[in-house]
Amino acid sequence: YKGNRTGPPVGPVGSKMSSQKKGRCHSCSALAVVDEPLFPVHIPAMARERIIHADWDADASVWVASSDDVPGLVTESKTFDGLLKKLRTLVPELLELNGAMPKSGKASYRVIAERHEMTHAAE
């Protein structure tokens, strides 16, 4: 699915505000019909939530964070709380260095964490 998730709602299908477009879901490749606005949608920088992915690296025993929304962000920490503490400093610094910090000086971000574990049957 590639649609307008963060912008304002578009008009009903077939209205003058939207058009239908066929596409494929990015995760499962299923066909989907998506409403797309006929005009560009400007999303203010403050309203845009940045996504940061945090993954557990079992080989190194650390949490690793990276993001396509925060240029240059790659960091790690032995604990998840330690990673969050690093992000509170790194995210605003990197946004400012890349000229991506909103004029308000405030930027929101979401940390999506993933950790895979293996379990074994009891003997």
Question: What is this structure's SSE topology?
Answer:
Blueprint: E1 18-24, E2 31-37, E3 50-57, E4 62-66, E5 74-77, H1 80-97, E6 109-114
Parallel strand pairs: 3-6
Antiparallel strand pairs: 1-2, 3-4, 4-5
Describe the 3D structure.
15% of the residues lie in helices and 30% in strands. It is built from 1 helix and 6 strands. A hairpin with a 7-residue loop joins strand 4 (62-66) and strand 5. The strands form 2 sheets. Strands 5-4-3-6 form a 4-stranded mixed beta sheet, with helices on one face. The protein has one helix at 80-97; strands spanning 18-24, 31-37, 50-57, 62-66, 74-77, 109-114. Residues 1-20 have low confidence and may be disordered.
Summary, kept brief:
Strand 3 (50-57) and strand 4 (62-66) form a beta hairpin. It contains one helix and six strands, in the order βββββαβ. It has a four-stranded mixed β-sheet, covered by helices on one side. A two-stranded antiparallel ribbon has the order 1-2.
